[in-house]
């Protein structure tokens, strides 16, 4: 994935269904001299991304409120939200611990 946050654009790259880079070599009966190397365009799909013109936090809050009111389906489950929060808190603790170690070494 490549994002340009200033422009609100990006590109998401994913492997095309049914493609396998290794298959190009395997289909050549083990002879590397006959192997064909597929181009990136042959195996990867580029999906352009465009951000909405609305403030991201406003969109997030609107989606949350819609789900809480039962007007929309939740984008993430409660379990996924708990896991994301747990990960964010663990990352924060790791950063704080690292900062403490660096400060002690200074």
Describe this structure in words.
With 106 residues, this protein is an alpha+beta fold. The chain contains four helices and three strands; from the N terminus they run ββααβαα. The protein has helices at residues 23-26, 40-43, 56-68, 78-105, and strands at residues 2-4, 9-15, 44-50. It is extended.
Search tags:
single chain, 106 residues, alpha+beta, three-stranded antiparallel beta sheet, 4 helices, 46% helix, 16% strand
Number of strands: 3
Strand order of the largest sheet: 1-2-3
- The number of helical elements comes to 4
Pick out the low-confidence regions: none
List the helices and strands and how they pair.
Layout: E1 2-4, E2 9-15, H1 23-26, H2 40-43, E3 44-50, H3 56-68, H4 78-105
Antiparallel strand pairs: 1-2, 2-3
Summarize the structure.
The chain has 106 residues and is of the alpha+beta class. The chain has helices spanning 23-26, 40-43, 56-68, 78-105; strands at 2-4, 9-15, 44-50.
């Amino acid at each position: 994935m490549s994002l340009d946050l200033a422009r609100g654009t990006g590109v998401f790259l994913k492997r095309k269904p049914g493609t396998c880079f290794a298959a190009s070599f395997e289909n050549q009966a083990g002879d590397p001299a006959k192997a064909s190397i597929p181009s990136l365009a042959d195996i990867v799909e580029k999906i352009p991304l465009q951000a909405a013109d609305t403030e991201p936090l406003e969109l997030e809050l609107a989606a949350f409120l819609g789900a809480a009111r039962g007007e929309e389906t939740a984008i993430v489950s409660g379990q996924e939200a708990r896991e994301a929060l747990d990960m964010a808190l663990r990352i924060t603790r790791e950063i704080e611990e690292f900062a403490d170690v660096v400060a002690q070494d200074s």
